[in-house]
Amino acid sequence: MQIFQRTIPTTLETDILVVGGGSAGAVAAITAARQGCSVTLVERYGFLGGVSTTVLDTFCGFYRRQGDESRKIVGGIPFLVIDELNQRGAALVRTSRYWKAGDVITYHPEILKIIWESLALQSGVRLLYHTFAADAIMEGERVVGIVTTGKSDWMRIKAQVVIDASGDADLAAAAGVLYEQGPALQAMTTIFHVGGVDVARASQVSKDELVGLMAEAAASDVRIPIKAGSFSITTLPGVMIVNMAHVSDLDPTDPEQLTQAEIQGREQALACQRFLQMRLPGFEGSYLVKLSTQIGVRESRRIIGEYRLTRKDVLQARRFSDGIARGAWPVEEHRPEAGVRVEYLPEGQTYDIPYRCLLPRKVLGLLVAGRCLSADHDAHASVRVMAQCMAMGQAAGIAAGLAIRDQGAPRDINISELRAQLRSTGAMI
Question: 53, 165, 183, 176: which is closest to 113 by C-alpha?
Answer without folding.
Answer: 53
